[in-house]
User: Fold these one by one.
Assistant:
Number 1:
Amino acid sequence: MNQPVTTPQATHFIVTQTKSVGIAILLTLFFGPFGLFYATIGGALFVMFGVPFLCIVGGIAFGAAASAGSTTGLLGALTMIPLCGLAMWLISLVWSVIAVNAFNNRLLASVR
């Protein structure tokens, strides 16, 4: 007389769009490491904090190695600042393209 009650299982769909490589390039081109947040949060944090730290350490080492105590060592260390800024920008551009492609590949692989 008593029959077990069964409820149909609901099917859930998670809809996620792929990320655009073009938008990633434009955001990173205009905003540098801040534009990298579109592609990857961890990568953006590394480029914003890790790369400047490495540049500071490299600038100190370069300045100390170039000349002990003279002004040319300081000048050599100061020339590292724009070079590190350019390096951060270029690293961000390349990293954003790689991160967006990796995200899209993972997303499409989970569908198959």
Number 2:
Amino acid sequence: MEWLKKIFPKITYDKKLHFGVSFIIAVMATATGNVMGMNWLQALYAGLGISLASGFGKEYGDKLNPSNTWDWKDVIADAVGALLGAGLVCWI
């Protein structure tokens, strides 16, 4: 894992969590859409929508907390995780 730290030295643990949780949510939501009979594009949109909504909801909660702030970098990590997760399920 040291090689990964050299390539991405500024990616914090928090961003990795945002990426990972969004990835998992997108995979599960997209796969559920496929099982329910959606075509791949509908399942992709469902996975992205559900994953991104949870990420935006988390950030909105952070914004309302006086000891925390909205962080667009967290939203970017959420979006990358959602895109890769939903895309992976549709590709498979």
